Amino acid sequence: MNTYLVLKWVHILSSMLLVGTGFGSAFYLFFANRSGSVQAQAVVSRLVVRADTWFTTPAGIVQPVSGAALAHMAGWPLSTPWIAASLGLYVLAGLCWLPVLWLQWRMADMARTAAQQGTALPDDYRRCARGWEALGYPAFIAMLAIYYLMVAKPALWG
């Protein structure tokens, strides 16, 4: 197998981890937050933080590095419309995701404390959960659009 195909495999695998782990963990936290169970929220929010640390963050770093290398090897400048649009959407997703990380850590800490003390979650947890969800939608839509751009490679402009 040549270097390009190995790099392409790494790029596809990391995109799968990035989007799959992100969507999967968001799915579970979304429903744990609606369960009314502080214990469930404590466990799931802790695991979401762990998944983002172990899988999503490394994949989020590998994606632009492997993508830039693939573009270079294929002879596509980063100004190629579908690549430029993908990079813009990736920045948008990242700008949404960074505060999401902070919100997840806060939510996990609040849920752990409430579960240990046998108390209800503070109102701040619900505010964080609303912000987490509001930022998650545009980030996920941006990632789906990037998938489309990577596969279709449309002309867009120029």
Which class best fits the helix and strand makeup?
A: mainly alpha
Strand content: under 5%
C-alpha-based Rg, rounded = 18 Å
Summed up, the helix count is 4
* Low-pLDDT regions: none
Shape: elongated
* Mean pLDDT over the full residue set: 96
* H-E string: HHHH
| Number of DSSP strand runs | 0
Helical residues, percent:
over 70%
Architecture overview:
- The protein is mainly alpha-helical.
- The protein is 85% helix and 0% strand.
- The chain contains four helices and no strands.
- α2 packs antiparallel against α3.
- The model has no long low-confidence stretch (mean pLDDT 96).
Summarize the model shown:
With 158 residues, the protein is an all-alpha fold. 85% of the residues lie in helices and 0% in strands. It has helices at 3-33, 38-74, 81-117, 123-152.
